[in-house]
Each structure stands twice: as structure tokens, then as C-alpha cells.
Amino acid sequence: MKKTIALFTFVCSIMGYSQTVQDTTKSIKLDAVVLSAQRYAKQKRKISQQVESISKKEIEFQNFQTTADVLGNSGVLSVQKSQQGGGSPVIRGFEANRILLLVDGIRMNNLIYRGGHLQNSITVDRNMLENVDVLFGPSSTIYGSDALGGAIYLQTKNPKLLKDSNNKKFSGNVLTNYSDVNKGKVGHFDFNYATTKFAALTSVSYNDFGDLKMGKQKNGINDYFGERPFYVQ
User: Is the separation of the CB atoms in 43 and 59 below 8 Å?
Assistant: First the structure.
């Protein structure tokens, strides 16, 4: 009987003590840090230029077919499309050779490109994007005259090293996408090999797009100006 009482008292003391402990953990919301606007890390709220970012989480959640679709549906800029798969970003009326596209700091275009629409965003794989920064307005001080109207800084994913283990580790992702409206077929595969001292990331993608067709369900109020009732293949 004494043992039973002693055990009961011990359990009660633990339960009573656990109820009196307060959680002292405090969460701190960190300010976003932007690298593309000043060429060095700086808090976003301290940058005078308007900069909008598209995070990896947003890119993966949207699950769009191409980088042009990611930019065009972000709500921060418009994209002109004259072909499926490509897209020409437009920032405050500037486009083509007045908008600089950079991938990890490497220029994708410059002033010698033509002034019309350029579909060069097709050269960047959407599935390998880590972050996108859109710089509005003149950015020539940082990136030269190519960025007269703004700049789009595309940051790709980096290999990830192992932290707590000396064992080798393989990880990867597989993605497929099909769209009936433009007969678009997208396939992507990437894998990461990592140790504590070495890591490598490999990516392979396949894209195939057809022509965009109007749906069969039409709005009777709209006169469909410019509609073509036939399709030439």
C-alpha cells in the first residue's frame, strides 16, 4: 500500500509541475533580404527602389508550365506571349532590350538585341528556380544601360551539403505536366548527390508545346472580334 501511495504522489507531483511550466519561446519575424538590388545583401525595407520577389514556395505552389507563366501570373508585371513556352516581360512599358534578364548574375540579353518582343524567358527552366527578384525602374547604376526599364534577377537552386552525417545521400524530384488547351507536355527530373564536403545538383527537363486554341464554350454577349472560325495546321 505504501508503494502505491508513493507512486501516486510522484506522478501527481510531475503532472502538477508540468502544468506550471510556461513556454518562453519567442518567435521573431525576420525582414526579407534582397541581394539583386544592391549587389550585396540588404534588408528589403531599406531599399529605395521597388523590388518584388517571387519565392520558391510560390513557384512550386503555382505549378505553371514555364518561367514566362510564373512571371505573368505573379501579379507584379505583365508578359507578352507570341508563342507557347516563351514570353517577353514588360515593366512599366519597357521590354526586350530595355529589360535585363539575369540568371545567377549572368546576362541573358543586352542592348544589341532588337527592340521588339523577345521570348528569351523560354531558356530558363521554371523547375530550377529558387527565387525571382523584379526590379522596377532604372537599374543602370547597378547593371548598366541594358537595365534602363528594370531588371529581372532569376536565382537557381544550389546543391545541398549534408550537415550531420558522413554518409552519402541521394535525393531527387520528378514532375510531369500536361495541358490540353495548348497540348503542352512538360517533364522534369533532378537529383542531388551530397556528402559533408561535396554536393552536386543535376537537372533534366523536356518541354513540348502546340498551338493555343479557343474553348468551345463561348460568351454570347461578346462579339469575339478577330475570331478565326478555322484552324490552319
Answer: no
Cell of 20: 506550471
> Which strands, in side-by-side order, build the sheet including 150-156?
51-55, 129-136, 150-156, 99-103, 106-107
In 43-61, which positions are buried (b, 16+ CB within 10 angstroms) versus exposed (e)? eeeeeebebebbeeeebee
Question: What is the CA 69 to chain-centroid distance, rounded?
Answer: 11
User: Is residue 225 classed exposed, middle or buried when 0-12, 13-18 and 19+ CB atoms within 10 A define those classes?
Assistant: exposed
State the pLDDT confidence band at 38, using cuts at 50, 70 and 90: low
Read off the pLDDT of residues 120-167 as tens digits, 9 standing for 90 and up: 787 888 889 999 988 888 877 788 878 888 889 999 998 888 887 666
User: How many whole angstroms separate alpha carbon 173 and alpha carbon 175?
Assistant: 7
Q: How many helices (H) and strands (E) does the chain have?
A: 4, 13
CB 154 within 8 A of CB 121: no
- Number of other CB atoms surrounding residue 110 within 10 Å: 13
- Domain assignments of the chain as residue spans, ordered by start: 33-156, 169-208
pLDDT at position 161 is: 86
pLDDT at 15: 39
- At the top level of CATH, the class of 33-156 is mainly beta
